[in-house]
Specification:
About 75% of the residues lie in helices and about 0% in strands. It is an all-alpha fold. The chain has 2 domains: about 350 residues, no CATH class; about 100 residues, Tetratricopeptide repeat domain (Serine Threonine Protein Phosphatase 5, Tetratricopeptide repeat).
């Protein structure tokens, strides 16, 4: 009874901590993709129109549904959307605590894993960024499925199997990362059960193989949608990008260990040779991680399982990189994967506790103080990150400082400056973006709009014509040229009346 009460108190304290560090994020504005996923999303304006909700993003219907619920409850301001993100993160902290406690039967392991997950600054992009909802909500269903799956494998009955599969399906309808659940679930079963090899193989055939087969089929369907509907004619496998995948994993691990230089945009340059120092370093780091997982599988299965979970959860984003779709590296993609890494760290802390218990009282005090200091440092950094996200200009200025020679942060900093009424500064960023990437039409259009607004029609026309030259099929740019013609005619008419 006392143990159950202690677990409840510890879990409640960690969950409260997760909410406290994100209080400062609740009043943050819409940023970047939020304007597409929420502000300009017509499907979430009327919850009664289920067809629009389900078809707006056919592969992630539960995300649109969650946004529609927020809008109905809170209105169109960002506050309510942030509240839901933070509440979901708190729920995930509870689920991870319960998962770690059941896996390890050790409250310190559970506390360490959940507390690090609660306050780690690498979680800020998923939790504090409204468009990171897909990661946070997917993790909720994923963790719930794993808890139910554990009960199912331990003889809980068919109803737990139904719940496991049900939560997994909902997770799949939230974000594609959930396709890795059957692999993570199978790894858990293989690593943890003390039964004979024959029983393990039987479950692999009867339980895990059907789930894995379903996941593979779902992955094929998702790729077909991507290649034929979302980006027709633009999807192809770029095999050299496999090296880039390894480098991105290395950078994620580095940021998890020392979360310095976080940013909404990470500049990732391609690697063309296996002998490139970055490729060798990345392959070495990932190789060491895999070797550690293999070595620990019989010594400390939870630590090994956590590493496997981490690596498997990054596979879907690695596939996107290989297909050259989306940004190669974004911090919110680590959210679900980090749960595995925190299990590994929690298991390591439990192992360290076992060693220091044999030492002096002062050694135990030092170990406890070190953990407390790490949690305090991460919590403070999370609050600082929330403050950066509170100001879009500061957020994109940070990206420009870290990637000064990439055109995309310049474009988005220009947009943020324009939203603040700082047109001259915005135009300077658009000009730099053009210099950095003269073959992209976006900066020409944005700069042309600014010039048209201040009456520099000739220069605006030149920029719009350049954009048409780059993208001849762009109807939007041609419409702008028509609007520019009308503005000039109106201006001449006004001058004539005077």
């Amino acid at each position: 009874m006392k143990s159950a009460l202690d677990s409840f108190v510890i879990c409640a304290a960690v969950t409260l901590l997760a909410g406290l560090v994100y209080l400062s994020a609740l009043h943050n504005p819409f940023v970047y993709d939020d304007y597409h996923t929420v502000v300009a999303n017509p499907s979430i304006q009327d919850m009664r129109n289920l067809r629009a909700l389900l078809l707006h993003d056919v592969t992630r219907p539960f995300i649109s549904l969650s946004y529609a619920v927020d809008r109905a409850l809170w209105g169109s301001a960002p506050f309510g959307f942030h509240v839901t993100n933070v509440l979901l993160h708190m729920i995930n902290v509870v689920l991870l605590f319960q998962l770690a406690r059941r896996f390890s039967e050790d409250q310190l392991v559970a506390f360490s894993a959940a507390a690090l997950f609660a306050v780690h600054p690498m979680m800020t992009e998923a939790v504090g960024y409204i468009s990171g909802r897909s990661e946070v909500l997917c993790a909720t269903w994923f963790l719930a499925a794993l808890l139910c799956g554990r009960r199912w494998l331990r003889g809980g009955g068919a109803r737990w199997g139904v719940l496991t599969v049900g939560f997994w399906i909902v997770a799949l309808a939230t974000k594609e990362t959930a396709a890795m659940f059957p692999f993570v679930f199978a790894a858990y079963d293989w690593l943890t059960t003390p039964e004979d090899e024959g029983e393990k193989r039987r479950r692999m055939r009867t339980v895990h193989l059907p789930l894995v087969g379903t996941a593979v089929a779902a992955g094929v369907v998702r790729l077909a949608v991507l290649a034929r509907i979302e980006y027709p004619g633009q999807v192809a496998v770029h095999w050299p990008y496999i090296l880039l995948d390894l480098d991105v994993v290395r950078r994620y691990v580095s940021l998890m260990l020392t979360p310095n230089h976080q940013t909404i945009f990470h500049d990732v340059t391609r690697i063309d040779s296996v002998f490139d120092p970055r490729a060798l370093l990345a392959a070495g780091v990932v190789g060491v991680i895999v070797a550690v997982a293999w070595r620990l599988r019989r010594v400390e299965w939870l630590a090994s399982f956590g590493i496997v979970w981490f690596l498997l959860s990054l596979v879907p984003s690695a596939v996107l990189i290989a297909l050259d779709q989306g940004e190669p590296m974004t911090e919110h993609r680590v959210y679900l994967a980090s749960c595995g890494l925190f299990l590994t760290v929690g298991a390591a802390i439990g192992w360290i506790r076992g060693r220091v218990e044999e030492a002096s009282v002062s050694a135990r005090s030092v170990a406890s103080a070190a953990l407390a200091l790490v949690l305090m440092a991460f919590a403070a950094e999370t609050v600082v990150r929330n403050a950066v996200w509170a100001d879009p200009v500061k957020l994109w200025r940070e990206s420009v400082d870290l990637a000064p020679n990439h055109y995309r942060p310049r474009l988005l900093l220009g947009e943020a400056l324009l939203d603040k009424g700082r047109r001259d500064e915005a135009m300077e960023q658009f000009r730099i973006a053009i210099r950095l990437r003269p073959t992209d039409s976006t900066a020409y259009v944005k700069l042309g709009r600014c010039l048209a607004d201040v009456g520099q029609f000739a220069e605006a026309r030149r920029l719009f014509l350049k954009a048409v030259e780059i993208e001849p099929r762009s109807g939007a740019v041609r419409q702008m040229l028509g609007a520019l013609d009308r503005m000039e005619v109106q201006l001449k008419s006004d001058d004539g009346r005077r």
